[in-house]
């Protein structure tokens, strides 16, 4: 199980460092690169490591989020073209997919395609379908060779980050496209739609948390 958490941490780091590197390659300045959630355990310049190795973010200079000085304007993320913003945003998922393809071959794409349906069906049925998926995940974690498990986690994380959930890479790409092509240029999504996305994201997270808690209680005695 320790190997599994180290793999998650490695994949998160690869995903986030790839986004930061892609941003810097296009001339954008990184303000923070944070891995994990919860209390901060380590910081060095822009890099932050937090206690729980889940989630993370890359924060660029962006005029939509803070006041930016005239000297820093050329390094603002939102000054990039639409397609450069999308390329930077998706660079982390691309790095994970490349890694998974190297380790798993074409089989990586089967896992990639399967993830959206697995996530949705598990969220809809936390005490049914989700339990089957979690038991299978447990079997894979305990029986799969290290490098193969790394490939599976990498491709699943890439697919998960492309789902149109609040805070995901896929969600950001949608907001960029709608903002640049649709009405209301200053509002990426109509308010009601944005609230619906946030609600669905929170509902799915709660459902999966319940599923995991139930699985730990019934199958593992925790």
Describe the structure.
This protein is of the alpha+beta class and 222 residues long. The chain is 62% helix and 13% strand. The protein has seven helices and two strands. It has helices spanning 2-25, 82-104, 107-124, 129-143, 146-161, 169-181, 191-218, and strands spanning 30-44, 47-60. It has a two-stranded antiparallel sheet. Helix 3 (107-124) crosses helix 5. The chain is globular and about 60 Å long. The model is unreliable at 183-188 (pLDDT under 50).
- How far the N terminus sits from the C terminus, by CA atoms, comes to 15 Å
Helix content: 55-70%
Uncertain segments are 183-188
Q: Compute the gyration radius: what is it?
A: 19 Å
Tell me the number of helical segments per DSSP (H or I, 4 or more residues long). 7
> N-to-C SSE series?
HEEHHHHHH
Question: Which strands sit side by side, in order, in the main sheet?
Answer: 1-2
**Mean pLDDT, all residues:** 89
The total count of strands amounts to 2
Largest sheet: 2 strands, antiparallel
Assess the beta-strand content as a share of residues: 5-15%
């Amino acid at each position: 199980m320790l190997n599994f958490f180290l793999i998650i941490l490695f994949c998160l780091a690869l995903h986030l460092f790839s986004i930061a590197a892609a941003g810097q390659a296009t001339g954008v300045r990184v303000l923070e690169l944070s891995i994990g959630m919860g209390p901060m355990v380590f910081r060095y310049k822009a890099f932050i490591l937090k206690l729980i190795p889940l989630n993370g973010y890359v924060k660029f200079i962006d005029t939509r989020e803070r006041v930016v000085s005239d000297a820093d304007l050329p390094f603002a993320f939102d000054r990039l073209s639409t397609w450069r913003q999308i390329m930077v945003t998706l660079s982390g998922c691309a790095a994970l997919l490349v890694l998974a393809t190297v380790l798993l071959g074409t089989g990586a794409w089967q896992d990639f395609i399967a993830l959206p349906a697995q996530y949705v069906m598990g969220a809809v049925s936390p005490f049914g379908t989700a339990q089957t998926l979690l038991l299978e995940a447990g079997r894979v974690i305990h029986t799969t060779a290290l490098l193969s498990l790394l490939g599976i986690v990498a491709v699943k994380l890439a697919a998960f980050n492309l789902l149109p959930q609040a805070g995901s890479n896929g969600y950001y790409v949608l907001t960029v496209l709608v903002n640049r092509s649709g009405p209301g240029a200053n509002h990426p999504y109509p308010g009601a739609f944005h609230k619906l996305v946030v609600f669905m994201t929170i509902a799915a997270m709660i459902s999966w948390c319940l599923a995991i808690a139930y699985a730990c209680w019934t199958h593992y005695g925790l």
